[in-house]
Amino acid sequence: MSPSQLAQRTRGPKVRHEGNSKSAPPSPWAGRWRRGSPLWFRVPLAIAIPVVALLVAPELKNSSLHLYTEIGIWAAVAVSLHLVLGFAGQLSLASGAFLTLGAYIGARATGFWHWPGLLTVAVTAVAALVLALAISVVIFRARGLHFALLTAGISLVAFGVIVNWQSVTGGSGGMSTGGPLSEGGAPGPLTLGPIEIDSAEQYFVAQAVLLSALLLGISILMRRKTGESWKAIREDDVLAASVGVNVPREKQIAFVLSSVLIALIGVFHAHWVGFVSPESYSFAKASFEPVAMIMIGGIGTIFGPVIGAAVVVGLPEMLRDADEASVLIYGILLLLVVMVAPRGFLGLVKSGLALLLSLGSRRRAPADDEGAGPPPEPSESGPSQLAGKTS
Amino acid sequence: MDVFLQQITNALVLGGAYVLVTLGLFLIFSVLDIPNFAHGEMYALGAYLQYLFVVQIGLPFFVALVLAMAGTAVVGVIMERAVFQRLRRVGLFPILISSLALAIILQQVISLIWGTNPVTVPQPVGGVLEIGSIRISAYRLIIVVLVLLTAGAVAWLVYRSGFGKRLRALAENRDLAQLAGVKVGLIGTLTFALGSALAGLAGGLLSAAAPMNPYMGFHPMLVAFVILVVVGSGGRLGAAVIGGFTVAVLETLTAGYISNALRTAVVFAALVVFLILRPEGAVRGVTAERARL
Amino acid sequence: MTAPTALLAADDISVRFGGLQALSNVSLTVEPHSTVGLIGPNGAGKTTLINVLSGLAAPTSGRLLWKGEAVRKWRLGIAARHGVARTFQATRVFGGLSTRENVLVAALNAKRDVDVESILEIVELDHRQDVVASELPFGEARRLGVALALATGPEVLLLDEPGAGLTGHDLTALGASIQRVCAEGVAVLLVDHNMRFVMGTADRVVVMESGTVIARGTPSEVQVDPLVLNAYLGRRTVGA
Q1: H or E element, residue A174
Q2: Which residues, at least 6 apart from B211, have a Cβ–Cβ distance to it below 8 Å?
Q3: Does C56 sit within 8 Å of B287, measured CB to CB?
Q4: Which residue of B97, B268, C120, C134 pairs with C126 in a disulfide if CB–CB is 3.0 to 4.6 A?
Q5: Overall average pLDDT of the C163-180 stretch
């Protein structure tokens, strides 16, 4: 019996399956909204966004470029961290450690060793991979609070190392990507093969490319077996294991992938700012804020962290004079989200839409409503690949 | 040797702060299962309230101290009732995040009200004592004595009083305690208030020993968590006291003999190593559910 | 000596948690085309045994054999991928996914091709496919739990009180489903408090008390065993 037939049936005697079953039929849209926009929509979107960025860049003021680039960078961090938080389901506070790793390798490589950007990226990726693999072997034996503390500890130890290893990292004073301050170097550009990224506009476009590619990549990944396993783990990792999901390995994959991505973003960030210091990657900024972004935007969705980043990074801008209150405000926002709207902003939007649509279907909405609704929310994907797999 | 003993003496005050903060966290976590990351802010709040009452309003030091403790207790109760009680049933993750959010909020409120520049509170008692080859300021000695007395009072309260009996019942098995007639909601809230007040006391005492800033609560809070993990939430309070002094000594010696900047890293490196070896933390009693996935 | 046809066997398993001896020298086999009923009063160790068999708990001594060979590393995920599926006493489903998506996820790592549609039919949830699992009423959620276990294409099925909370028609239908599954070659271990249900569904029964096996045999043999009667005297649970 199709959902729409079922919907019609409820106008008559209630269909009873169990003595205590709910009589309302599922909305015909319920599944669709959870799954989000299809891939053939997202691929062109991923191409369009950087193109738009390219076209729009010359028109924007420097301050706007700066803001959007910053939002984009932190959005990428949040999206990457979400692989662990939203899918492995554990509170990881280790992002600071990997951002720091990438940023400092990047700064040192470009400023002191004069490496080509591609080499820096490759080395950072390998370093992050090795470190993340080593860490992942042990951290997942801990859960809940211990996991959070362990990852927090890793970030704090990284912070301590940076501050103390003065000869290599410049200590609390930091260092520039342009080389030793004594030599008066201006921040070095990020050279990736033939592409040199130097100006604010170029960073803005580059960031748009990276973020789009990241989001598209994750959208694709979520539709594959790994993504499905991750969603199951997030719902109930014990149950997932009992149905054959290799939970320890999937968590490890999520963590390693997330850490490598974050480290690479660190390289980018360091070059964009032109300067690295421990304060830029403090626990609050680099480990906790991405978590806040994920929660506020909507955990469990692909685009939620982007929205969260826009809110958290954009808040000081929007508040102008009152920007000292911005951290307070996003703290309050985060608290409200956790208590009242645990699925974040996107969760609210999706629930609202689903509610509206189910109301519409029950009242048998007039024809002109069909298809004229708001565009599908780009959010977590559904098991579209699975449909063909099993007989 | 003298230098060494002097270092230890210096560590006693720091240890005292850690002991009180840890005791507070212990009570809250053992009884309510709440990993309260905002606990450190109770410490900071205690210090700033002390500053408010002594410097800004002009009350006598120890009167202000009592008020500061009351103030932190009240804030703690508000947090418990408004946030943690509601999230109890939802899960650990929301509690972790919301306590982090509360910590941020409190930190910001403090820095908005009092600014970020370090301030201090004048010591109520001056003078320096010399015991053998060790010098210790009279006030610092008072702090240590007060800490030990408080720890003793808390121990008496928990292990010898009627309230303590109910508290321990609640810690062991909430549902059973409730069935046995223990008013779990009330006892829980009182415990939270007590725990927060202890942290506030630590802050108030230390306010006259060192300059304060709005971020001062972060480190003691993490130390308390380290001790909590290592000792285990079912441990006896005495272990928390020993833990607090041990960490303080460890930090001070590291700062003195190795490098001042490494003091935090050493403690957390120790935590990381410990959790690597024993991911469940220190487990007591029957069994830890190590989910074997 | 375990029977050559046994798929999963517990050989002299003991489990000790701190000061509590949960299982003492328990041996048990699960064979294809048969249903073993595991009964016993509360605290007998039945769920602990299921936890050991499914990899969730580790035995303090003794060993587990899979198809005659001792297993070295046995975890929940590993067991499932070998073909040992289980349900949980407290119903577990993937709440945020739909009923159908639940089964699809369970089938992801199945050892053999799994027909999602027919599994949904067996548990009578085929008309509820798009309902989000967290909105399923108790009985349906319970059936979904069984469907999840079935969707892994198991060779061994461990059911921990599948009938709890079910009555009448639902219970009979569950028993019939179990027998169907068993007829297809799956080895079933069934734990339940409902005596009538177990006796009616199982071919063999194992009775436990306080962590040890006190009787084995066919349902009719076990029902008249004096040790069993003693264990249940005064605490007999009449079939619901």
Answers
A1: none
A2: B118, B119, B120
A3: no
A4: C120
A5: 82
Asked if pLDDT for residue B154 goes beyond 70, the answer is yes
Domain residue spans in chain B?
2-277
**Within an 8 Å CB–CB cutoff, is residue A332 touching chain B?**
yes
| ipTM of the complex model | 0.90
Containing structural domain, residue A251: 37-280
The rounded distance, in Å, linking the Cα atoms of B202 and B46 is 7
Rounded to whole angstroms, the Cα distance separating B168 from B155 reads: 12
Query: How far is A136 from A254, CA to CA, in rounded Å?
Result: 10
Phi/psi for B156 (5° steps) reads -60, -45
Dist. CA B79–CA B36, nearest whole Å: 10
Q: CB–CB of C88 and A391 under 8 A? A: no
**Gap between the Cα atoms of B21 and B224, Å rounded:** 6
Q: Is the pLDDT of residue B285 over 70?
A: no
- Neighbour count for residue B91 (Cβ, 10 Å): 11
* Structure confidence at residue A13 (pLDDT): 37
Which residues of chain B have a CB within 8 Å of the CB of C75? 292-293
Q: Is the pLDDT of residue B99 over 90?
A: yes
Q: Cα separation of A364 and A4, whole Å?
A: 10
**Contacts of residue A284 in chain B, CB cutoff 8 Å?**
104
| CA nearest to C77 within chain B | B293
**Calpha distance A264→A256 (Å, rounded):** 12
Structural domain contains residue A1? no
Question: Are the CB atoms for B278 and B290 separated by under 8 Å?
Answer: no
CATH number of B2-277: 1.10.3470
Tell me the fold of C30-49+81-232.
Rossmann fold (3.40.50)
* Integer CA distances (angstroms), B74 to B68, B114, B197, in order: 10, 20, 9
User: Which one has a higher pLDDT value, C7 or A354?
Assistant: C7
Instruction: Check whether B233 has a pLDDT greater than 70.
Output: no
- A117 pLDDT above the threshold of 90: no
Chain B residues with CB within 8 Å of chain C CB = 285-287, 291-293
Q: Name the residue ranges covered by the structural domains of chain C.
A: 30-49+81-232
CA distance B256 to chain A (A): 15
d(CA A19, CA C133): 18
For chains A and B, count residue pairs whose Cβ atoms are closer than 8 Å: 121
Q: Is A101 inside a domain boundary?
A: yes
Provide the pLDDT confidence category of residue A390 given band limits of 50, 70 and 90.
very low
C84 in A contact zone (CB under 8 Å): no
Q: Total structural domains in chain A?
A: 1
With cut-offs at 50, 70 and 90, classify the pLDDT of residue B289.
very low
Q: Tokens 């040192």 — which residue?
A: A108
Do B191 and B81 form a contact (C-beta atoms < 8 A)?
A: no
Average pLDDT for A248-264? 94
Q: How far is CA A39 from the centre of its chain?
A: 18
The C-alpha atoms of residue A187 and residue A202 are separated, in whole angstroms, by 15
Orientation of helix B237-253 relative to helix B138-160, angle to 10° = 150
C neighbour chains, 3+ CB pairs within 8 Å? A, B
Q: Is residue A371 in some structural domain?
A: no
CB of B217 within 8 A of CB of B43? Answer: yes
Helices then strands, counting H and E runs in chain C, come out as 9, 10
C104 in reach of chain A (CB within 8 A): yes
Q: Determine the length of chain C.
A: 240
